[in-house]
Design a protein that fits this description.
The chain starts with 10 loop residues before the first strand and ends in a 6-residue tail after the last strand. The chain is globular. It is an alpha/beta fold and 425 residues long. It has helices at 21-33, 47-56, 74-83, 94-97, 99-108, 119-136, 149-164, 186-201, 203-210, 253-266, 290-305, 315-321, 331-336, 363-381, 395-398, 400-409; strands at residues 11-16, 40-44, 65-68, 84-89, 111-114, 139-141, 170-181, 234-235, 246-249, 276-282, 338-347, 352-360, 391-393, 413-419. β2 (40-44), α2 and β3 (65-68) form a beta-alpha-beta unit. A seven-stranded parallel sheet has the order 3-2-1-4-5-6-13, with helices on both faces. A seven-stranded mixed sheet has the order 8-9-10-7-11-12-14.
Length: 425
């Protein structure tokens, strides 16, 4: 079934999981940002709850359709996929609930986006559905929220700038989280625990999760660049002279780095065969900053090493200690959140660049609703500018410049500058 066309579908966007916390925020964003002629459907298990969500969105959503679909009912997911040009899913943990919808979209030639940060789920999506999605031209795009749009698009923007400047390939590239404020959603916690539980009982899954090229299209084709640690402790000035103090591995880095490396491989290593990428957090310049930096650096490494012990911890206890799925902070708390990241890159010609990506709003909630909402609009409305190849893609390889443009218009601070003089190493 090659080259399936979905231009005549009933809906432009179907939001699956609209009754969940982040799903509701994404629905609210689309009600505000989507053009009035975009045909949107809210999908999920409960007619009553979906109607309540729609009623709370105001006049902009009064004509949105309601579609019933359940992760345990493949026929309902097949019908949902056949009805829409693009589907956005906020139903997790994706390891437990995600693959049936990916399968439906791959078969129907329907574009798909989600919020997953679960590498084992994405690996299964690649293994099971990349070829079929490529045949049907379905763009299956995982990780369209704070995981991993800021990371993936920052490197994409650096690559585009270096290419325009004829500055050579990207080499040492490091994302630095300069400032961040926000909470962990119940859905994010459930997703993380689902993957850790699998790693606890399956040594093969644990080995796959720690491979820096977990998500590579062809593992044997990846360059051997030596150890690439997710939890290293670094002096900030070693990344760039404009920085001071200490840094340690960013807690989302073990996933984001693998998405970025997949983008490079999908592009036939256009970023460079010597492209090395890592993510860290800035932890201040006082001598006391070394303590949390060391704890973070050791914690990321120890978390994987100790994951087998989770099989001895009752699931009910972990559930009680974690935020409940479908819950989240108040609107006031979400508005107080923010993040600012800077990604530094050296090219093969020795030139230095910095990409800035900053947003107001809690990263896992308010900011993610914007990132996912604009991804949905890009997939539905920017088809003439998107990747013409289907398959299991990444935000950068599927949407790249169109998504960057949309985010800038939405108020996201995205800039790329060349570093000269004292700022460069």
């Amino acid at each position: 079934m090659a080259g399936v066309q979905n231009l005549d579908r009933e809906y432009d966007i179907a939001l699956y999981g609209a009754t969940g916390f982040v799903g509701g925020l994404t629905a609210a964003y689309l009600a505000k940002a989507a053009p009035t002629d975009v045909r949107i459907a809210l999908a999920g298990r409960s007619q009553r709850k979906l109607e309540a969500v729609r009623a709370g969105l105001g006049p902009a959503a009064e004509n949105w359709a309601i579609v019933l679909a359940d992760a345990t009912d493949q026929s309902s997911l097949d019908a949902l996929a056949a009805s829409a040009r693009s589907i956005v899913s906020t139903v997790g943990p994706y390891t437990e609930h995600g693959l049936p919808l990916v399968a439906a979209c791959a078969a129907a030639g329907t574009d798909y986006a989600d919020l997953t940060g679960e590498s084992l789920f994405v690996r299964r999506s690649i293994d099971g559905y990349h070829k079929q999605a490529a045949d049907t031209t379905a763009r299956i795009v995982h990780s369209c929220g704070f995981d991993s749009v800021p990371s993936d698009l920052s490197v994409h923007a650096l690559y585009r700038r270096a290419l325009a400047d004829d500055a050579g390939e990207l080499r040492e590239t490091t994302l630095v989280v300069r400032r961040i404020r926000g909470g962990v959603s119940g859905g994010t916690a459930a997703s993380g625990l689902a993957q850790l539980r699998e790693m606890a009982t399956d040594p093969a899954a644990r080995r796959l999760a720690v491979d820096p090229y977990t998500l590579s299209p062809v593992r044997a084709a990846e360059p051997e660049l030596g150890r690439q640690s997710d939890g290293s402790l670094k002096r900030a000035a070693g990344i760039d002279r404009s920085l001071s103090g200490w840094t340690a591995g960013f807690f989302m880095g073990p996933y984001n780095t693998r998405i970025v490396r997949r983008s490079n491989a999908i592009r036939d290593f256009a970023y460079g065969r010597e492209f090395r990428y890592s993510e860290v957090m800035s932890l201040g310049r006082t001598p006391f900053a070394l303590v949390p930096a060391a704890v973070l650096a050791g914690g990321l490494t120890a978390g994987v090493a100790l994951s087998p012990l989770l099989r001895f911890v009752p699931h009910s206890l972990l559930a009680r200690l974690s935020p409940r799925p479908g819950t989240g902070p108040s609107e006031r708390s979400r508005a107080k959140g923010f993040f600012a990241i800077e990604t530094f890159a050296t090219t093969s010609s020795g030139r230095r660049y910095r990409a800035r990506f900053a947003m107001q709003g809690d990263p896992g909630y308010a900011a993610t609703a914007v990132l996912l909402g604009e991804s949905a609009l890009a997939l539905a409305l920017d088809t003439d500018r998107l990747s013409r190849s289907g398959g299991v893609l990444t935000p950068a390889t599927a949407m790249g410049d169109p998504l960057l443009d949309r985010l800038v218009r939405a108020g996201v601070d995205i800039q790329v500058d060349e570093l000269v003089g004292a700022a460069a190493r």
